[in-house]
Amino acid sequence: MSIHRLYLIALCIGVASCTKDKTDYEAEISTEVPEHYAFEEAVSFGSEGYGISIEALNGTFYKGYNEIRLTVTDAQTGEPADVSTVTFLPVMSRTDGSSSSGPHRYELVYEPDDNRFSGYAVFTDESRPDGTWEFYIDFTVGDQTHAVKQSITVEQQANKNLNMTAFTGDDGEQYVIALVAPQRPKVAENELVAGIYRYNDPAGPAGTFPDPAQFSYTEANDYTLLLDPRMPEPSMGNHSSPNNKNLTQQSDGLYYGVVNYTMTGNWTLNFILVNPQGKILKGTEVPTDFTPGVEGVKSELYIDILF
């Protein structure tokens, strides 16, 4: 079993244990929900006569899902370089010698209208003293490939509407679900967007570090994410809402559904993940009982949000 797989299992156990603590609902309700819609430069660096700039929302990398935009320019002219391909690998290295990644687009997509490359990264943890993130980027100009490495900082995700979870499915595979939208929901029917990813166990021993095969993820295709939103705090009795829609995959690889929030406050998105063959991989049905005065029961697979 790879070091990366062991780390994911430990992460899943840690997430599960933390959710057992009683929630301070009153403190959470008063929390201001941030949202960011502008892309700004998050990091820039130079290499062998070229400048590389990477943008993210708010100019910050956060734990969870991050859309990224990368440009390469000629350092002398400041003009866009004639880049044919860009590969992108985020890796977290720890002081104990272990390393891991998160779901990401390894081969970035060229957008000719903007002379940039786009992709995403799901950071499974924020930067900390015993764990640092680095980008390993290869880009090709003409017949020459340039390899660069850059340290970056990943901040804690302050917006619970963009939370994520990692877990082991009943098929033994490691999965990550990361919320993408909405950043700030409304008291209404909201389009709910999430990424669902599966870790690819390496077929052989690791090659030269960082070997992309050791850090590979696949978008989970043609799954269904069943949704049952509830308000779990005791005063709300774990009630749900009508007109919710399960999440299914669309052409961009992300999963889309509808969540109907009937009021502001703490909500739990209870999920059941079903594979293309109809098998439940994770998650349990939530009782329909109205339970005033008692904290609501949650699915085996869930994400807490707040707005």
- The Cα radius of gyration reads 20 Å
How many domains? The number is: 2
| Multimerization status | single chain
Largest sheet: 10 strands, antiparallel
Distance between the termini: 40 Å
Helical fraction equals under 10%
**Strand count:** 21
Helix vs. strand class = mainly beta
* Global outline: globular
* Percentage of β-strand residues: over 45%
Unreliable runs, pLDDT <50, ≥5 residues?
6-22
Protein architecture, described:
This protein is mostly beta strands and 307 residues long. The protein folds into two domains: 3-33 and 159-306; 39-155, Immunoglobulins (Immunoglobulin-like, Sandwich), CATH 2.60.40.10. Helix content is 7%, strand content 46%. It has two helices and 21 strands. The strands form four sheets. Strands 12, 13, 14, 15, 16, 17, 18, 19, 20 and 21 form a ten-stranded antiparallel β-sheet that branches. The longest helix has 16 residues, at 3-18. The two termini are 40 Å apart.
